[in-house]
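Suppose you are handed a protein chain with no further information: no name, no annotation, nothing but its sequence. What can you learn? This example shows the usual starting point.
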Amino acid sequence: MSKKLGIWQEVRARALELLEEKNEVQLLIEIALHEGDVGRALELLPRVSGYLQNVYWGKAAEAAEEKGPINAAGLYRQLAEAAIGERQRKAYRQAVEYLRRMKVVLDRVGKRREWEEYLTGLKKRYARYPALLDELQKAKL
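A reasonable first move is to predict its three-dimensional structure. Written in structure tokens, the prediction is:
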């Protein structure tokens, strides 16, 4: 209706302002992602905490794959390392999925060497985590 009346921009700006005032970070991220504003979503990510952090970081990483692949790779890296930090096999499986996505993104932008160096370092750093190494091997990473 506001588009028909020609006042959409004012309505939108006021709605975003109110969400900001109420610190509705999750909604602001959802809006930014819906509108394709990956940069804005990335700016808001540090303000998300708790269990929803991984959800929104994952959504932002997926959205950034096309418009900001280096940002996406960085987010997948952080998500993978956070999952590894949980020290549970289920979390290792999730970490492997993030690492797969990171690899695809880096391959696509010609950063295969950086991927290989990162993975080698990761395996060395977690050499005493046999379940993680097993999941990496199963995934052929």
